[in-house]
Predict the 3D structure of the following.
Amino acid sequence: MSSHSNRKRAETKKAKNLSPTEEEIEQLIATLSEVQNPKTRMRTAEALGKIGEPAIKPLSSALTEERWEVRSNAILALEKIGQPAIHVFQEAMTDQDWFVRATAVKALGQIKDPRAVKGLISVLNDKDWFVRERAAEALSKIGEPAIDPLISALKDRNGLVRERAAEVLGKIGDATSIKPLMETFHDEELYVRAKAVLAFERVRRRIAASAER
């Protein structure tokens, strides 16, 4: 049976509030791992995402596949499922493929679940700059629940973590980060000090603007 037919059958059942069978889900996952056309892969990922929770377990298994294309497509499908797959995203943050890690942290930022904060902070020192950027974006989207852990991260032994923590605190803009950022002006690393100063100014301007309203 064609991948198009598998998708249509799964989507039709979902529209009628009928659960796709395990076999149909497995066929879609097989399509996700075997098809070469990027548009077909994306449509298949969307179909699996619409199925929701019943697709999480088989998609999680697909993340153990050796081929990076399979893992990448599986994480894209899980991203569309969202909140119910939070535990999978947390595990995927340590995947060997940068795209899988980046997509996982992006999804956690969209979910905005405070439980993801600790793991996201640990990813601020990822070896790939793009993953670090995505982790910073995710933390800024989570916002207030990330403030105290980020303030603690200003004293992390890893300079990259301290630098990114300062940057994210500036984006969140909460007044409680003013003093910790000022203390970071004396950090041993230049880039950390620079980020702390910029973040401090950003928070200060936001506080001043709020006071003028």
Notes: The chain has 13 helices and no strands. Residues 11-18 have pLDDT under 50 and may be disordered. Residues 190-212 form the longest helix (23 residues).
